[in-house]
Specification:
The protein is of the alpha/beta class. It is 42% helix and 14% strand. It has an 8-stranded parallel barrel with strand order 1-2-3-4-5-6-7-8, surrounded by 6 helices. It binds 2-phosphoglycolic acid (PGA).
């Protein structure tokens, strides 16, 4: 595992993280074609469909690219037809896994407690975790946003230690901004990131708070990324739609300082 604390060096030298989330897109040939068109000497994260993990992992050996999955089941093995486990992802070449994505929370009724079990399993299986949270439009309009975010943070990451946080990235993805073309303004995103950083400080102390990378996600494009990265508490981006096309992905990489 990589010590993620080394990625977010506070103050001037922080290195932003770019993670593509392909969701349920790309056949193996399409995934390999994408890989042939993007640089291999730049560090970025790519969460791909399970079927593409192994073939891509074979191709990126020795490169700076980090592959990941988009889900796991909390158990390591067992009679769970149709599910995938952390050790199996690791075996296929994954370095990390995205957990708590709003599409899993809303479409598959995943609760904070259930996601917490997955986080624990991922870490014990040596997978880094990108833990997603975010409010719905209704939460925001009703004034519940902070409560919802606090619950997602504390329950989803319950029992995490300072050591565990070395392998956790948090991604703030407001549900109303995902796949809708409605990016939160840099100020809106910064406001929530700052709120999250303060919460982390209260719960886990300032060392964890200052060193845990906080990504923004939700309709990020090469055009909107630079302004988001200017904000002091935004350490990178989790990108869905704009990560599918090699040209826009290369433009996202270019937008990194
Ligand atoms: P989007 O997806 O960039 O297409 O909005 C982001 C995500 O769901 O991770």
């Amino acid at each position: 595992m990589i010590d993620l604390f080394q990625i977010r060096v506070p103050m001037f030298s922080k290195k932003p993280i770019l993670c593509g989330n392909w969701k349920m897109h790309k056949t193996i040939p399409e995934a390999l074609e994408f890989l042939s068109q993007v640089p291999h000497d730049k560090t970025f994260y790519l969460a791909v469909p399970f079927t593409s993990l192994y073939p891509l992992a074979q191709k990126i050996q020795g490169s700076s690219i980090l592959l990941g999955g988009q889900n796991i089941y909390p158990s390591a093995h067992g009679p769970f037809t149709g599910e995938i486990s952390a050790p199996l992802l690791k075996d296929a070449g994954a370095h990390f896994v995205i957990l708590g994505h709003s599409e899993r929370r809303t479409l598959f009724q995943e609760t904070n407690a259930f996601i917490n079990q997955k986080v624990k399993r991922a870490l014990t299986s040596n997978l880094d975790v990108i833990y997603c949270l975010g409010e719905s439009l209704m939460d925001r309009e009703k004034g519940n946003m902070h409560e919802v975010l606090e619950e997602q943070l504390k329950e989803g990451l319950k029992d995490m230690t300072t050591e565990d946080f070395k392998n956790i990235v948090i991604a703030y993805e407001p549900i109303w901004a995902i796949g809708t073309g409605k990016t939160a303004t840099p100020q809106m995103a910064q406001e929530v990131h700052h709120f999250l950083r303060e919460l982390i400080k209260k719960e886990w102390g300032s060392f964890v708070s200052e060193n845990t990378p906080l990504l923004y996600g939700g309709s990020v494009t090469p055009e909107t990324l630079p302004a988001l990265l200017q904000e002091p508490d935004i350490d990178g981006a989790l990108v869905g739609g704009a990560s599918l096309n090699p040209e826009s992905f290369k433009a996202l990489l270019k937008a990194l300082p």
